[in-house]
Amino acid sequence: MKPLILITTLTLLSAAVSYDFPHLQTLRSSASSSTQGKAAADLIERLIGDRSSDFVVEIDKGIGPQDMFELSSLENGKVKIVASGGVAAAMGFYHYFKYFCNGQRTWAGKQAELPSILPTLKTPIKISSLDMFRYYQNVCTLSYTSAFWDWDRWEQEIDWMALHGINLPLAFVGQEAIFQRMYLSMGFSQEDLEEHFGGPAFLAWARMGNIRGWGGPLPQMWITQKLLLQHKILKRMRDLGMMPVLPAFAGHVPAAITRVFPKANVTRLGNWGHFNSTYSGTYLLDFEDPLFQTFGKKFIEMQTAEYGTNHIYNADTFNEMRPASSDPAYIAQAGKYVFTAMTAGDPQAIWLMQGWMFLSPFWQPPQVKALVTAVPKGRMIILDLASEIEPVYQKFDSYYGQPFIWCMLHNFGGTMELYGAIDSINQGPSKGRNFPDSTMVGIGMTPEGIHQNEVIYEFMAENAWRAKPRDLNQWFASFAQQRYGHKNDDVNQAWKLLMSSVYNSSDGHRDHDLAMITKRPSVKYDVSSDLWYNPEDLFKAWDGFINASGALQASSLFHYDIADVSRNSLQVIAMNFFTDMIKAYRAKDIATVKKNGASMSELLTDLNHLLCSNERYLLGLWIADARAWAVDSSEKTLMEYNARNQITLWGPDGEIHDYASKQWCGVVAE
Ligand SMILES: *[C@@H]1O[C@H](CO)[C@@H](O)[C@H](O)[C@H]1NC(C)=O
Ligand SMILES: *[C@@H]1O[C@H](CO)[C@@H](O)[C@H](O)[C@H]1NC(C)=O
Ligand SMILES: *[C@@H]1O[C@H](CO)[C@@H](O)[C@H](O)[C@H]1NC(C)=O
Ligand SMILES: *[C@@H]1O[C@H](CO)[C@@H](O)[C@H](O)[C@H]1NC(C)=O
Q1: Cα(275) to centroid of ligand 2, in Å?
Q2: Atom from ligand 1 closest to the CA of residue 267
Q3: Is there a domain that residue 340 lies in?
Q4: Mean pLDDT, to the nearest integer, of 509-528?
Q5: In terms of residue numbers, what domain contains 67?
Q6: Which one-letter DSSP state was computed for residue 414?
Q7: Shared domain check, 421 and 295
Q8: CB 605 within 8 A of CB 670
Q9: pLDDT for the residue 4
Q10: Which of 214, 259, 452, 544 could cysteine-pair with 279, CB 3.0–4.6 Å?
């Protein structure tokens, strides 16, 4: 097979931004070169088996400071990868795999059939990432997607991270064990904690202080098993040279605080979402209370003793929670105390904060400035969390000198609509880097849930080293070729149509309300106006996939994609039936209501058949993974209830219903 060299202008790229953050410069994995090299080589072997012996990995920690790799062909036909660390080596491998071997590795699977002789690189290719960090995950991903993952699934995900260049991953598994240890040591009881921790599928929101106890009590075996899992996760991340981000104490405490420490100055926060006070209205410890420092210090010390540390901690004290006062002096004070509580436990601590709340009108420039400048320069990293739809770093003057990461949020609740803001993702990161006095130090991917729209994540990850916007036609054609292993005009046509329609949301419209067929029926929905594209483009793309189905039938990623495009097309058709039905309902035209209702029911049956044909769309796997965490039948019931509740009612009485709805076999019909 003739190698197809799609990129001809790769040269050594120099960093666009010069940094003035000495603390960040020194952050490097302590794993030795040989450990990182072996971790990268093992990863390559997991991906391509025996053919991994065709690659030689060499780590040179002296090159940098940004991650970089150099690829070259050896006389014996092997390809040599020299890289600054394990992640850079994996990135370098993936670059060659995609652009010279037509390979791809995404959540749905891989195209890993290599040419029998590796394509020769006539001249070496050197690529340097443009920023220091590539961040990955949202605190919600841990519940919406990975709540029930075992080590095998985590291992695959860490491989995915390394291939896509992630060096700053959120590592939030297993924190309840540390919190439990800390609270028990301070006089809280097991029962106090049962009311405090969330259930297995709802930990993300209990950790943020939005809810408490809902979905619990959290089984002890869960807590212990997650601790063991976290050890494996951290070891692998560190072996690859990543810098895992661990949690810190953010101020949320069990309700029993008023019994254990009667003098503690706590505020009971308002109820969150539509939750009532049984499961919401959590307690926040006042920043100035000396106990805040005690908890903050103890938590980090106990966590470090158990898991070690890379000195970067996430704490989202104000996530979706309005501070007690908008006075900048108060906010600055709060920021200072949160940070001091961290440094009390780890003098080198760096506070990584999700900037999600900065989208709320409460946070105006004086409030944001007060918070972010309360911490020494370079000791806080802000995730500009949804930069592709609503970047706020400009509004806040590049965070007044604090470093930030340009993040693509892209997905809410792990819903499945085909969606993307391709132009913004193509141009946004370089805009961020070139902003006057930019403090951008990285790019990030912060979806609430994954397993959807893989193309967007493949595209986004390359922003690590792409200094300029890409030619989208060319990029999508190479994407399709990598995905299925060869070139196919029909499928190219289809992807081109998707690129300029569903993947080109440019007016702020997003995916969320469109999955109405998996939502509670309501005559109030007016979803048709939410479409940001012409559905005919989607249907034509669907047709293109069908045209290609003979030629690409051997590709499992093609099976996944054709099911996905069919699924989304059926969803749009269902929406049309629904809109007509509501119109008829308003006109009191019973016959038309019935006709459209019947069409919808039939369509749901068809959709279910379609979804049952592919293992990536099965409800059963989500439930089986949940039940696998149980040790007895009552825990099995609890796990399954959590799994089912999250994707449907989301709360005891449908408090956040349908937010994480799924179009899975077993959900859209029995
Ligand atoms: C308790 O905290 C609030 C702010 O949350 C503060 O106004 C008040 O003065 C504090 N009370 C004491 C006794 O420190
Ligand atoms: C909150 O909702 C739960 C579940 O429906 C119910 O059992 C409980 O009584 C409610 N609590 C309050 C204070 O209304
Ligand atoms: C996306 O839409 C915008 C606005 O309609 C248009 O200018 C742009 O060319 C489109 N991009 C693609 C890739 O189709
Ligand atoms: C699929 O094939 C049909 C029949 O040849 C053709 O009319 C149609 O344009 C093709 N669709 C796409 C998207 O290429």
Answers
A1: 9
A2: 5
A3: yes
A4: 71
A5: 4-128
A6: T
A7: yes
A8: no
A9: 35
A10: 214
The last residue of a domain, from among 417, 438, 466: 466
For residue 507, give the ligand 3 atom closest to its CA.
4
- Pair 121, 108 in one domain: yes
Mutate to test the pocket of ligand 2, among 271, 278, 656 (most ligand atoms within 8 A of CB): 278
Ligand in nearest proximity to the CA of 421: 3
Atom 12 in ligand 1: residue holding the nearest Cα: 265
In a domain, 399, yes or no: yes
The structure tokens 């369509």 sit at 603
Query: Which-ligand-closest: CA of 279?
Result: 2
Assess if residue 138 is contained within a domain: yes
Q: Is 185 in the pocket of ligand 3 (CB under 6 A)?
A: no
Of 575, 558, 570, give the one whose Cα is nearest residue 616: 558
For residues 329 and 419, state if they share a domain: yes
- Beta bridge partners, 253, equal 283
What's the confidence (pLDDT) of residue 516? 73
Say if residue 320's pLDDT is above 80. Answer: no
Q: How many CB atoms lie within 10 A of CB 633?
A: 9
Q: CB of 500 closer than 6 A to ligand 3?
A: yes
CATH number at residue 588: 1.20.120.670
Tell whether 240 and 357 lie within a shared domain: yes
Where residue 326 sits, what CATH number does that domain have? 3.20.20.80
Instruction: Provide the pairing of β-strand 252-253 with 283-285.
Output: antiparallel
Judge if 93 and 140 occupy the same domain: no
- Helical pair 290-307 and 328-345, crossing angle rounded to 10 deg: 40
Residue of the nearest CA to atom 7 in ligand 4? 543
Reported as half-sphere exposure (CB side, CA atoms, 13 A), residue 66 has a value of 25
455 and 535, same domain (yes or no) = no
Ligand nearest to the CA of 489: 4
Q: Could you count the other beta carbons within 10 Å of the beta carbon of residue 188? A: 21
Which of 569, 585, 567, 570 shows the shortest CA–CA distance to 522?
Answer: 585
pLDDT at 349: 96
Report the number of distinct structural domains present in the chain. Answer: 3
With a CB cutoff of 8 Å and minimum separation 6, the contacts of 123 are: none
Q: 199: Cβ–Cβ under 8 A, 6 or more apart, which residues?
A: 214, 215, 216, 217, 218, 638, 642
Ligand 2 centroid from CA 278, angstroms: 6
Is 500 domain-assigned?
A: yes
d(C-alpha 383, C-alpha 628), whole Å: 34
Nearest CA to ligand 2 atom 10: 278
- Check residue 531 and give its pLDDT: 84
Same domain membership, residue 441 and residue 303: yes
330 in ligand 1 pocket by Cβ < 6 Å? no
Testing ligand 1's pocket by substitution, the residue of 252, 288, 330, 333 carrying the most ligand atoms inside 8 A of its CB is 288
Q: Which of 256-270, 382-396, 411-425, 527-541 has the weakest average pLDDT?
A: 527-541
For residues 288 and 332, the answer to whether their CB atoms sit within 8 Å is: no
Ligand 3 centre distance from Cα of residue 456 (Å): 16
Ligand 3 and 504: CB distance under 6 A:
yes
Residue-wise pLDDT for 389-406, tens only, equals 999 999 999 999 999 999
What mean pLDDT comes out for the span 195-210?
96
588 vs 39, 201, 371, 592, 597, CA distance in Å? 66, 42, 56, 9, 14
For residues 36 and 93, state if they share a domain: yes
Ligand 2: residues with CB < 6 A are 276-278, 652-653
- For ligand 3, atom 12, the nearest C-alpha belongs to 500
Give, rounded to a whole angstrom, the gap between the first and last alpha carbons of the chain: 46
